[in-house]
Amino acid sequence: MNNIKRMAAFVLAAVMLVVFAGCGDQSWSYRTGDTSLSAGTYIINLLNAYYEAHDKVESPDEVKKILDAEIEDSDGEKKTVEQYAIDEADKTTMKMLAVEELFKQYGLELDQTEYEYNKSYIGSAWGYNKEMFESYGISEESFLYVMVEYSVKYGQVFEKIYGKDGEKAVSDEEMTKYFSDKYTGYAYFNVSMATEDEATGESVAKSDEEFARAKAYLQTYADMINKDGKSYEDVVKAYMNDFNYATDPTLSGSVELETATLNEAVLDTLKSLDDGKAAFVPYGEGGTASFYFVYRPTTESIIDFLDSDDTDEGTIAVDTFDEASSTAHVAPLKSGYSHSSLLSEMKKEEFEDYLLEFANNLPVEKNDAILNSFKPKMFVQKNSDN
Question: Taking residues 350-354, what's their average pLDDT?
Answer without folding.
Answer: 97
